[in-house]
Write a structure and sequence with these properties.
By secondary structure, the chain is an alpha/beta fold. The chain has 10 helices and 7 strands. The structure holds S-adenosylmethionine (SAM).
Length: 255
């Protein structure tokens, strides 16, 4: 508890903590309202049948390597996220983007997926927004801990929370080719980030939202909109991928 309060002071995290407390209070209500029919009827459950196998295999190898690295950091288990490394690597290799923006880094599985794909593509930059976990000692040292130093050349990482980081990052970006959202899981947090980044999206931008089964944000914003989307079941959760150009989705996932 002392650690937690010290970190709140160290990172001036008062607003972020209030937001988290508020989300704890409303998350059950948001979850209870989720349209589970929408998710279960539309989601792809066996993604491997719909992707380019060669590139997918590279993603599997990367995921195994990251898990191995992680297993050597036993004591830090708490700080592991659950993004689908294979999917993020796959989309980045297929699209070959110039600019990727992600929210939510934690130990860095998603960041490592993007940065490894960027290195293999020989093209691209990753901008990441995170907020360190307040309940561990020296939390900054754990952010992106699985990302190899040699990959960090193409990485711009900010740690002051989305509300501060995203406006700072957006000033530097002329456009966003891939946006991955995996930070504040509340409806309000998603809405805030999406509305902020919208002006930097173009016809072919790809948006990936993790844990869309937390609330109805994805359905409300993308079901009846000018975006096309695919839902992917990953372990016991759902990921939403959308873009205004349906041909891109058809090339990524051969349905
Ligand atoms: C699920 S984890 C991210 C996992 C990561 N994408 C991965 O693949 O390893 C969520 C991260 O978002 C951070 N976070 C939570 N609220 C945030 C906010 N408002 N702004 C920025 N980061 C936030 C958490 O501290 C945590 O590091």
């Amino acid at each position: 508890m002392k650690k937690y309060f010290n970190n709140i002071i160290k990172y001036s995290a008062y607003r972020e903590v209030l937001r988290k407390v508020r989300y704890r209070l409303i998350s059950k209500k948001e979850k209870a309202q989720v349209d589970t029919d929408f998710l279960s009827k539309e989601a792809i459950t066996n993604i491997i049948d719909y992707v380019d196998n060669e590139i997918w295999k590279e993603g599997i190898e990367l995921e195994n390597a990251l898990n191995q690295k992680w297993s050597k950091l036993q004591s830090k288990k708490k700080y592991k996220g659950e993004a689908d490394v294979k999917l993020l690597y796959y989309i980045t290799r297929m699209i070959k983007p110039e600019f990727i923006l992600e929210t939510g880094v934690a130990s860095g599985f998603s960041s490592a997926a993007f940065l490894t794909a960027i290195t293999n593509n020989k093209k691209g930059k990753l901008f990441s927004s995170d907020f360190p976990y307040l309940s561990i000692d020296n939390p900054e040292s754990m952010v992106g801990v699985v990302v190899e130093d040699k990959l960090k050349l193409n990485w711009n990482l900010l740690l002051k929370g989305d509300r501060v980081n995203l406006p700072e990052i957006l000033i530097k970006l002329s456009k966003i080719d891939i946006f991955h959202y995996d930070s504040d899981k509340s409806y309000e947090g998603r809405e805030f980030a999406f509305n902020l980044i919208k002006p930097k999206l173009h016809q072919d931008s790809i948006l990936i939202f993790d844990d869309i089964d937390d609330n109805n944000f994805f359905k409300d914003y993308f079901q009846n909109s000018n975006f096309y989307y695919r839902l992917i079941k990953y372990n016991s959760k759902y990921i939403g991928v959308c873009t205004k150009n349906d041909q891109i989705l058809k090339n990524l996932f051969k349905l």
